[in-house]
Amino acid sequence: NFNYPREFEAWTRDVAGHMEAVDSAVSRLVGFTPAQRIDVVVDDPYNEPNGSALPILGSPVLNFWPVPPSPREDIGNWRTWSEMLSVHEFAHLAHLMRPSRNPLDALLWKLAPAAVGPVARKAPRWAIEGYATFVEGRITGSGRPNGAWRAAVLRQWALEGHLPTYDQMSSWNAFDGGELAYLAGS
Fold first, then answer.
1. Are 58 and 112 in contact (CB under 8 A)?
2. Terminal alpha carbon distance of the chain
3. Bridge partners, residue 52, by sequence
4. Cα four-point dihedral sign 101, 169, 151, 76
5. Structural contact between residues 49 and 63, judged by C-beta atoms closer than 8 angstroms
6. Cα gap 158→156, rounded to integer Å
7. Model pLDDT, residue 174
8. Looking at the DSSP assignment, which residues form a beta bridge with residue 38?
9. Strand segments (E) across the chain
10. Model-level pTM?
11. What 8-state DSSP symbol labels residue 53?
12. Mean pLDDT of 50-70
């Protein structure tokens, strides 16, 4: 189910046209397919490139902001913004919506107002964003893992002896508004 303002109709139709292929490719790589219907909200609240995934087990949501990043940003290496964004955000759902295999845990979370899976509850931010970034690179052949910016930054930090700790990779403040989770996590 796609929800969007009229001015983003063409962009949303483009995304909707390839979501089945994204679902298949990501699910094949990740090894899990979310069974629930996914709502997709397309909006541009801040004129910024971004997206998000809400892995609520009963009603997952993807948020897509259609403004593409500039080539100077670390995510500036892509074929189409809609492809990279949809693969990255759907990877979050396929990764984070895997239900618990523990029957008691699964029951307790079914009783909660908003059930989330064990990976979403327990994984650090660098693992969540890093994995989605890895999937983005493998499926699209573009994105952050295939760009020169990521390799150059990590190589320079290594040469200077400043590779981030796991805590720094999960921090929102450590580097460029939290980019370590994507760059070093992947």
1. no
2. 30
3. 63
4. positive
5. no
6. 5
7. 63
8. none
9. 2-3, 39-42, 50-54, 61-65
10. 0.93
11. E
12. 94
Which spans in 31-147 are helix H?
A: 81-96, 103-111, 118-122, 125-140
- The single residue listed with the structure tokens 């913004």 is 81
Residue whose tokens read 């990740």: 30
Per DSSP, the chain holds a count of helices (H) and strands (E) of 8, 4
> CA dist 16 to 73, 89, 168, Å?
26, 14, 36
Write down the residue that tokens 């700790």 correspond to: 165
10 Å CB burial of residue 18 (0-12, 13-18, 19+) is middle
Q: Is the pLDDT of residue 172 over 80?
A: no
For residue 28, give both structure tokens.
Answer: 């094949």
Instruction: Take residue 32 and report the two structure tokens written for it.
Output: 């899990």
Please say whether the beta carbons of 40 and 3 come within 8 A. yes
